[in-house]
Amino acid sequence: MKNPIKDIENNKPIEHELSAPIIETLGISKVYRIGSTMVSPVTDVTLQVGYGELVIIFGPSGAGKSTLISMLMGLEKPDVGEVFFKGMSLYNYTDEQRTVIRLKKISYLPQAQYWIDNLGIVDNVALPLLLQGWSKSRARTKAKEYLTKVGISPDLKQSPDQLSSGQQQKVALARALIKDPWIIFADEPTAHLDSKSVDEVAKILVDTAEKQKITIVMVTHDLSFLKLSKKWLFMQDGRLWNIEDKKNPFTDIKQVIDYIDLQKEKERED
Ligand SMILES: Nc1ncnc2c1ncn2[C@@H]1O[C@H](COP(=O)(O)OP(=O)(O)O)[C@@H](O)[C@H]1O
Ligand SMILES: [Mg+2]
Question: Whose CA is nearest to atom 3 of ligand 1?
Answer without folding.
Answer: 32
